[in-house]
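User: Reviewer 2 asked us to show a designed sequence for the structure in our supplementary figure. I'm pasting the C-alpha cells here. Could you produce the per-position amino acids so we can include them in the response letter?
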C-alpha cells in the first residue's frame, strides 16, 4: 500500500547536479490540466538542479497511448538525450480502455528503455477519478512530475557512473 505522504518532499542534497545533462520530456495532451501541471513540476525541478533550459526538449503527443511512440521517436532522432520523462494521466472510465492503455504504456515504455539503453521515466498517473489526479499533480500527494525529474537525474548519474 502506498504511504499517504507527499513523496515530493525530498532531500535536494541527495539529487545529482544536472548541469551537463540533456533531457527529453514527452507530454500527453489528454487531461491536459493535469499533464501540464506535471510537466511544469518536472521542468522546474530540472532547472533547480542545474539542467540548462536549452537542454530540455519538450514535445507533446495526443494521449498516453502515444507516449511509447513519442519516447521512441525522440530517442531515435535526438540520440544526444540522456533520458526521457514521459508524462500522462489516464483516468478510469466506464469501459476497459483504462486497462488497455495503462498496460500498453507501462510495457511500451519499459521496452523503449531497453531498446535505446537509456532511462525512460514513467510519470503517468493512473487514477480512479480527477480528484485523485489533482492530488498528485500539485495537491496533497505532491507532484509526480517533480518525482519523475528526480528519478531521471538519479538514473542518468547511475548510467554514467556504470559506463565510465
Ligand atoms: N488518453 C489519456 O492520456 N488518458 C485517458 O484517460 C484516456 N482515456 C481514453 C478513453 C477512451 C475511451 C479512448 C478511446 C481513448 C482515451 N485516451 C486517453 C486516448 C489514448 O491514449 C490515445 O490517444 C487514443 O486511443 C488514440 O490512440
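Assistant: Here is a per-position design you can include in the supplement:
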Amino acid at each position: 500500500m502506498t504511504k499517504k505522504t507527499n513523496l515530493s518532499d525530498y532531500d535536494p542534497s541527495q539529487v545529482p547536479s544536472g548541469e551537463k545533462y540533456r533531457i527529453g520530456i514527452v507530454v500527453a495532451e489528454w487531461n491536459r490540466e493535469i499533464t501540464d501541471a506535471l510537466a511544469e513540476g518536472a521542468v522546474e525541478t530540472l532547472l533547480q538542479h542545474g539542467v540548462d533550459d536549452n537542454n530540455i526538449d519538450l514535445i507533446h503527443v495526443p494521449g498516453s497511448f502515444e507516449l511509447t511512440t513519442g519516447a521512441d521517436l525522440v530517442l531515435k532522432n535526438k540520440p544526444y538525450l540522456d533520458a526521457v520523462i514521459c508524462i500522462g494521466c489516464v483516468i478510469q472510465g466506464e469501459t476497459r480502455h483504462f486497462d488497455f492503455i495503462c498496460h500498453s504504456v507501462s510495457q511500451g515504455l519499459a521496452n523503449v528503455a531497453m531498446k535505446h539503453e537509456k532511462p525512460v521515466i514513467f510519470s503517468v498517473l493512473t487514477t480512479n477519478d480527477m480528484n485523485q489526479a489533482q492530488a498528485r499533480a500539485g495537491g496533497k500527494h505532491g507532484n509526480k512530475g517533480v518525482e519523475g525529474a528526480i528519478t531521471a537525474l538519479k538514473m542518468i548519474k547511475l548510467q554514467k557512473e556504470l559506463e565510465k
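For the response letter, you might also mention the following. The CA atoms of residues 26 and 71 lie 7 Å apart. The longest helix spans residues 97-116.
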